[in-house]
Amino acid sequence: MRAYIGRQQAVSVEDFAELALGTPVELWLGVEGETEEERAAREDAARDILADDPGLPDDLVRLAAQVIEDNPDLFDVVPCTRPARRRPARKGVAA
């Protein structure tokens, strides 16, 4: 079975990540053995992308959370229940 995102075929996890991000994963994570100059250039490029799309980090966190929620068997996670939110006591009323 082939998987496509838009017109691009994704054949690996890295392909899916790159297509979801719109950039190579290495731009954000770096590569082993990169020089200080290469690192600085990569970080400059990343800053430019974030300046153009400041909502990108939030979108990616939502996407990652949705993928994990939809596929917990792939991530060895145990869903946690959220504790009930405590409301602050009103003035003059004992908690």
Structure description:
The protein is mainly alpha-helical and 95 residues long. Helices cover 48% and strands 6% of the residues. The chain contains 4 helices and 2 strands. It has a two-stranded antiparallel ribbon with strand order 1-2. Strand 1 (3-5) and strand 2 form a beta hairpin. The protein is extended, with a radius of gyration of 20 Å. The N and C termini lie far apart (59 Å). The mean pLDDT is 80.
Short description:
It is built from 4 helices and 2 strands, in the order E-E-H-H-H-H. The protein is mainly alpha-helical.
Cα Rg: 20 Å
Number of β-strand runs: 2
Name the poorly predicted regions.
none
Gross geometry: extended
Oligomer category: single chain
Structural class: mainly alpha
| SSE topology string | EEHHHH
Helix content: 40-55%
Features:
95 residues, mainly alpha, 2 strands
Itemize the secondary structure elements and their pairings.
Elements: E1 3-5, E2 8-10, H1 13-21, H2 25-29, H3 36-52, H4 56-70
Antiparallel strand pairs: 1-2
